[in-house]
Amino acid sequence: MRILVVEDEEDLARHVAGALRRHEHDVEVFNDGGRAVEAALRQPPDLMVLDLNLPTMSGLTILSRIKQAALPTRVIILTARADVEHRIKGLNAGADDYMGKPFSMDELAARVNVLGRRGGRSNDAAHITVGDVVMDVPHRRLTRRGERVELSPREFEVLQILMREPGRVFSRSEICERIWQREHQYDTRTVEIFIMRLRKKLEFDGLPPVIHTVRGVGYQVLPVE
Ligand code: CA
């Protein structure tokens, strides 16, 4: 993948770039937001690793420029771990994922790979695989580690939305809109109930969680191998 790293802390930028290059990505580093936006508009990268706290142009401004230009670029934001408010703003502004500083380079590389696998042909596939969970869409069958998990039609739909884009955070209202569409009576608490039931069913025999809550934003599915 072609990746732009936008980070003004030079040591961190170098480490991130090095880790991603070891995973055979084509990486360019920018310490300055304005230049990064110019480069992204000239040739949209597949992914941007974006620090939110930058001099001259903030990460949130960069993010909004990218979204305005409707670039196909996926964005992982970097925030100080304590900075919940900025993280939420970033995710609401359209970032695909976030890393709280300090983070491990292995985890960043793993998240980048998850986002890289998303989209394209696999989105239309009849079988969706996320880690140890396999969804057979035409037959409405779900298995985890080969064990059949029985889901109601609505539970299946909620999980399908999350599994089609692993790593992406979906807000409760987005999940509601996708499922109920023009019905205005929906209640975002309904989604919470479906998520609770799905977790109960997916975490049988003490298996680790597949659905994660991102506080103040929504839910995401991450692979468990
Ligand atoms: Ca910074």
Please provide a brief summary of the model:
This protein is of the alpha/beta class. It is about 40% helix and about 25% strand.
State the main characteristics.
225 residues; alpha/beta; Rossmann fold; Arc Repressor Mutant, subunit A; 2 domains; five-stranded parallel sheet
| Element-level helix/strand string | EHEHEHEHEHEEEEHEHHEE
Q: Helix content range of the residues, please? A: 40-55%
Residue-averaged pLDDT: 88
> Which CATH class of the largest domain is shown?
Alpha Beta
Shape: globular
Structure ligands: calcium ion
Which structural class fits the helix and strand makeup? alpha/beta
Number of distinct beta strands: 12
Strand arrangement within the widest β-sheet reads 2-1-3-4-5
Radius of gyration: 18 Å
Distance between the amino and carboxyl termini? 23 Å
Number of helices: 8
Give the tally of structural domains.
Answer: 2
**Largest pleated sheet:** 5 strands, parallel
The CATH architecture assignment of the largest domain turns out to be: 3-Layer(aba) Sandwich
CATH topology of the largest domain: Rossmann fold
Strand content: 15-25%
Point out poorly predicted stretches.
119-123
Strand-helix topology:
Layout: E1 2-6, H1 10-22, E2 26-30, H2 33-42, E3 47-51, H3 59-68, E4 74-80, H4 84-92, E5 97-101, H5 105-117, E6 127-130, E7 133-136, E8 141-144, E9 147-148, H6 153-164, E10 170-171, H7 172-180, H8 188-202, E11 211-214, E12 218-221
Parallel strand pairs: 1-2, 1-3, 3-4, 4-5
Antiparallel strand pairs: 6-7, 7-8, 8-9, 10-12, 11-12
Helix pairs in contact: 1-5, 2-3, 6-8, 7-8
Bound molecules: calcium ion.
